[in-house]
Amino acid sequence: MPEISRFLGIVIYMYFKDHNPPHLHVVYEKYEASIEIKDLKIIKGSLPPRILGFVVEWAMIHQDELLENWEAVKYLKTPKKIEPLIS
Asked: Is the dihedral of CA 70, 46, 48, 26 positive or negative?
């Protein structure tokens, strides 16, 4: 499960050959969620509202890169790291 980005204790992953719709996986402390890339809605799990806000803000900025990474992992290629929201 390649790590795409990490900031504020939030870790963003994508799985190789994962199921549609295109999405990312988020881990923050004891919380885990899957978020659809296109509409930035949680499709599984939960996150605290403040953390979800940070993830959505980051994902909006990097939506094209996330979709490119989705295509890469779909074919077992290593995704590119994406700049964090805050270093």
From this structure: negative
24 domain residue, yes or no = yes
pLDDT, tens digit, 9 for 90 and up, residues 57-82: 999 999 999 999 999 999 999 999 99
Give the whole-angstrom CA distance, residue 62 versus residue 17. Answer: 21
With 0-12 / 13-18 / 19 or more C-beta atoms within 10 angstroms meaning exposed / middle / buried, residue 54 is: buried
Tally of domains in the chain: 1
| Residue 84, burial from CB neighbour count under 10 angstroms (0-12, 13-18, 19+) | middle
* Residue span of the structural domain in which 21 resides: 3-74
Q: What pTM was estimated for this model as a whole?
A: 0.93
Helix intervals (H) in the chain: 49-61, 63-74
Judged on CB neighbours under 10 Å (0-12, 13-18, 19+), 60 is exposed
The answer to whether residues 85 and 6 touch, using CB atoms and an 8 Å cutoff, is no
